Amino acid sequence: MVFLNSVVLALVVLAMAATSEAQLIDKKALTLDAAKRIVAAAETDAKAKGARVVIAVVDDGGNLLLLQRLDETQVASVNVAIGKARTAAIYRRASKEFEDQIRNGRIAALALADSTPLQGGLPITFAGKVIGAIGVSGETPSQDEEIARAGAEAAKSLEAK
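Predicted structure:
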């Protein structure tokens, strides 16, 4: 009887362990080093264009990892860049999509929580999953997005490393 109880208990423990493992997933995350490389690529592009911008990189939950404000960039762009990046990360799409929705008459998009519906925020992906985002603010909307794209493109080289 004691042996049977021990076997049953062992089977229950094994089943619980298998169930708990099934409830966990492996997830890739941006490191500070990766965020620095992304910002460096965006900064290089901004300087080549003579742009004065703020560059923000966030994780997949929209939490700030790195912020860089280039010399002589307006202070107001700090929060805007963070907002654009956060929007791209938590909604898993470019922040411009929300700007376009509002422009096209869907003003209800203004009510989305933690959303900055302005062009210049792009998701950063790895193996088809959003692992963070970059937001740029300070110049024209299209320039902000071009600079953000340079950073997002640099993130693709992280996959090879």
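Summary: The mean pLDDT is 91.
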